[in-house]
């Protein structure tokens, strides 16, 4: 028995020693057409068609350690180059994994709470497809999935004593903004020391029902007062996929308590991403719902059409603020490695569908822009 044990150990050691690194490289190149109804000159010229992004994905594995990274290169006007995600992982077994680095925050319906190219309204509040720096444990079982995570901070690009958060990032995070136009940053806040927990129950059956709840609590450091406020968010969420039909529902509550100088503007916070900043309410509810239907087709390289509609609302606790609405109706066309999103995206008091980019998601738009606006958008991507 002693010799058999030695042989087993040696054979296992040799097996790992002979294991070769596995590396897979992928990516995408995308182009985008858009026509925004509130941009008169753009409407007159029939919209604009240009470069969206080039991205590289790398996935590696060696001796039980995995790595996953995605780097994106946008135009300078949208933040330029940025790392969407980048983490090291270890699988304890086929159900349990730990990830360390810039990894997705486990909150709400994941990977996405939406079907369209624009995502849901939660994304623009930092509550969908958010990636932060920390450590995450993930369990995927037959009936239950759960995640536990600690995030030290959002991705930090400027190391120093008290630097403002760089807006050149993929995920929306609490940051800074020049609110009075004097050239100096105000509302200088950062996310720190955040805890996340998420649990999902998978109902047995062909419909794939997934019922879940998420919670988040962390600190918000003000760079001027150096005092720490807090942030909390809770969510109930549901997903279903039955043959060709898909459904996603989510309700979320979020409250941020910043410690700004002289307690000013504590009812708003700045969010940063894609090279820019805008204001959001400090306390709100969101309600989102997305439905999709897949249609198999045989038309040249086209194999599937996905019809969808995503709706979202931001119910702001401050009664002096105007609520935000967003609706995206569209179709995704799958043709080999090419995916095309054709969207009619509308919104009220929504920064990306409004001439008032800075204020619309917080207190609301000015009288001239406080109405529904529409953006017609076609995104064409080749994924390799």
What is the gist of this entry?
The protein has about 375 residues and is mainly beta.
Structure, described:
The protein has 384 residues and is mostly beta strands. The protein is 6% helix and 56% strand. It is built from 2 helices and 19 strands.
Shape: globular
- Provide the helix percentage: under 10%
Order of adjacent strands in the largest pleated sheet: 1-2-3-4-5-6-7-9-10-11-12-15-16-17-18-19
Largest sheet: 16 strands, antiparallel, barrel
Number of strands: 19
Low-confidence stretches: 1-18
| Secondary-structure-derived class | mainly beta
Distance from first to last alpha carbon:
51 Å
The number of helices is: 2
Radius of gyration: 23 Å
The H/E string reads HEHEEEEEEEEEEEEEEEEEE
Estimate what percentage of residues fall within beta strands: over 45%
Q: Could you tell me the mean pLDDT?
A: 93
Q: Which properties best describe this structure?
A:
384 residues; mainly beta
Fold blueprint:
Blueprint (H helix, E strand, L loop, with lengths): L1 H17 L3 E15 L3 H5 L3 E15 L2 E10 L6 E11 L4 E9 L26 E10 L3 E11 L18 E2 L14 E14 L7 E13 L5 E15 L2 E13 L10 E6 L2 E6 L1 E17 L2 E15 L7 E12 L2 E11 L24 E11 L1
């Amino acid at each position: 028995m002693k010799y058999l044990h030695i042989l087993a150990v040696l054979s296992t050691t040799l097996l790992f020693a002979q294991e070769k690194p596995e590396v897979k490289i992928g990516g995408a190149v995308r182009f985008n057409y858009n026509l925004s109804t509130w941009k008169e000159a753009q409407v007159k010229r029939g919209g604009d068609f240009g470069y969206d992004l080039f991205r590289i994905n790398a996935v590696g594995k060696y001796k039980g350690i995995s790595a996953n990274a995605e780097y994106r290169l946008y135009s300078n006007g949208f933040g330029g180059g940025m790392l969407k995600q980048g983490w090291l992982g270890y699988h304890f077994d086929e159900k349990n994994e730990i990830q360390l680095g810039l990894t997705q925050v486990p909150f709400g319906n994941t990977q996405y709470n939406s079907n369209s190219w624009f995502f849901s309204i939660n994304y623009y509040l930092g509550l969908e497809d958010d990636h932060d720096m920390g450590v995450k444990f993930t369990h995927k079982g037959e009936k239950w999935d759960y995640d536990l995570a600690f995030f030290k901070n959002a991705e930090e690009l400027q190391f120093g004593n008290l630097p403002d958060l760089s807006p050149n990032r993929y995920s929306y995070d609490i940051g800074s903004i020049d609110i009075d136009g004097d050239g100096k940053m105000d509302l200088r806040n950062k996310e720190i020391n955040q805890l996340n927990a998420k649990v999902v129950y998978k109902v047995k059956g062909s419909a794939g029902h997934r019922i879940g709840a998420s919670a988040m609590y962390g600190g918000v450091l003000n760079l001027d007062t150096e005092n720490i406020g807090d942030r909390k968010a809770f969510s109930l969420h549901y997903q279903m996929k039955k043959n060709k039909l898909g459904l996603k529902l989510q309700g979320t509550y979020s409250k941020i308590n910043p410690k700004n100088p002289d307690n000013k503007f504590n009812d708003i916070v700045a969010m940063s991403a894609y090279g820019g900043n805008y204001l959001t309410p400090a306390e709100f509810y969101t309600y989102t719902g997305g439905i999709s239907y897949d249609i198999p087709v045989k038309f040249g390289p086209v194999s599937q059409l996905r019809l969808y509609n995503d709706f979202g609302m931001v119910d702001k606790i401050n009664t002096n603020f105007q609520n935000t609405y967003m609706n995206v109706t569209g179709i995704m066309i799958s043709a080999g490695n090419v995916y095309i999103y054709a969207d009619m995206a509308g919104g009220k008091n929504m920064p990306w569908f409004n001439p008032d980019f800075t204020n619309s998601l917080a207190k609301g738009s000015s009288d001239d822009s406080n109405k529904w606006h529409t953006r017609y958008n076609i995104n064409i991507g080749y994924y390799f």
